Amino acid sequence: MSVAAIFDESGHPLQDTAGDGPAPKAIVVAYGFWIFLLSDIVMFSAIFATYAVLAHATAGGPSGAQLFNRTRVLVETGCLLLSSYTCGLMSLGVEARHRVATYCAALITFVLGAAFLSVEISEFAGMVARGATPERSAFLSAFFTLVGCHGLHVSFGLIWLVVMMAQVVTKGFREAVVRRLFCFSLFWHALDIIWVGIFTVVYLIGTRS
Amino acid sequence: MSTQTHENSSGSTRGESREALRSGFFVYTVGLILAIILTATSFWAASTPLLWAPGVALGLAVLAVAQMGVHLVFFLHITTGPDNTNNVLALAFGLMIVTLVVAGSLWIMANLNANMMP
Question: Can you tell me the ipTM of this complex?
């Protein structure tokens, strides 16, 4: 697959695509974004490893079992999982070039993502109010780094979603806009995969015994 | 992770794309149901007193890996199709790095802790 192919404005390769010719731009862009996502996951794996190593280094401070509330985590998980589903429905709406369906699914995705973030922020605020700040212990530093980094990704995803909807409003379903929407849905689904790791390692395994 | 761009110009392609949308909706819904089942099982296993406690952590890890697989296949559409070879190879390489980083860190740090002077 030759990436350095020549494309016209709408992203179609100028040469014939028969045989071993260059892949369409949509495929190349998705592949490149997939590699970015994998590098992001590798970065998260380093933070996960840090957390797993430091999980019991509480330095006499509060431990995970004392701090975490499983019901709250279940709500967060439900919000993010459903928003991943509605994000999938949004990409179906984009595929059908259906504006109303796209806007509705994007709105639900945004609301669920924002609900996830607000629950997470209130959890952080509650922890800080009880003195469980990042500088209290190595365990808490690792916790805030891991979960905060994921929350930061969700915040950027929400901003990206708003930008993409503004582009659909102003530019319509252009080839480039559709490609970006596809990259956004990959990003949003990948965030949910990382959250599966977080709720298992941090909240479920971490609060046992 | 296949990107289809449908031309909604003629009637026949519109019928085909409607079929594709229906199957896409089906795939996402199946993925959601599987993910809900796996998540519910994880939360149940973590809080029930019925299971043998030392095995629960391993079971939770297996459930998490299964759910990640469900997300990859049903939401990200990573399949073994011929147009997906590059994506699967990149994923395999990423998984190798993730395994090395996580397992290697835990192994080395556990070893260092065990050999620390009291």
Answer: 0.85
Residues of chain A in contact with residue B97, where contact means CB-CB under 8 angstroms, are: 42, 45
- Give a yes or no: residue A4 inside a domain: no
Query: Any bridge partners for residue A7, and if so which?
Result: A13
* The residue count for chain A: 209
Per DSSP, A59 falls in state T
Query: Is A130 near chain B, with CB under 8 Å?
Result: no
The predicted pLDDT at position A53 comes to: 92
What is the Cα–Cα distance from A139 to A141, expressed in whole angstroms? 6
CA distance B26 to chain A (A): 10
pLDDT tens-digit readout, A61-72 = 898 889 999 999
Q: How many residues does chain B have?
A: 118
CA distance A58 to A60: 5
What are the structural domain ranges in chain B?
1-79, 81-118
Number of domains, chain A: 1
Q: How far apart are CA A22 and CA A5, in angstroms?
A: 6
CB contact under 8 A, A70 and B43: yes
Q: Do B83 and A208 touch (CB under 8 A)?
A: no
Report yes or no on A108 lying in a domain: yes
Chain A nearest-CA residue for B103: A49
Does A171 map to a domain? yes
Whether A30 is in a domain gets the answer: yes
Contact B3 A182 (CB under 8 A): yes
Q: How far is A129 from chain B (nearest CA, A)?
A: 27
Q: Which residues of chain A have pLDDT under 50?
A: 1-4, 16-17
Residue of A nearest to B22 (CA): A92
Query: Which CATH number do you get for residue A148?
Result: 1.20.120.80
